[in-house]
Amino acid sequence: MALARTPWPYTADDARWFVDQPQDSRCPHFFVTLPTSMAPAAIIGCVGLTRGDAGVELGYWIAREHWGRGFATEAARAVLAFGFTHLGVHRVEAHCVAENTGSAHVLEKIGLQLEGHLRHKEFFKSRWWDTLVYAILEPEWRAAQAPRG
Description:
The chain is of the alpha+beta class. About 30% of the residues lie in helices and about 35% in strands. The protein has four helices and six strands, in the order αβββαβαββα. The chain has a six-stranded mixed β-sheet with strand order 1-2-3-4-6-5, with helices on both faces. A hairpin with a 2-residue loop joins β5 (about 115-125) and β6 (about 125-135). The relative contact order is 0.14.
């Protein structure tokens, strides 16, 4: 998911701005907040699905001070399930900067498979960045949800 205002890492203000943008009602975006046991409804990021040229793309960001605590994984897993169970999506893909190993790890933990490495795909922060492309198909996601016997 591309954010036009600033490159990662994002802030709560970026999340508010993004959620306020016109959206395809079939692909909603959600705030990511801290659990109520930790703080009163603090926005720490955003997660959502976006319709693109190749289908539906999963995107998320979490404020830097909350990285490494499982929030991105939990939010991305929930939105992935929402896409497959409520929106009838067949394929979800996600892109991340190749150097962002934390984001790649999140995508792998929720079942997406690496499909490609695009060289110098994104330009921001005054340089070109390689991008990784991940994807999962609805039948693969369903199979992973089945109880193990």
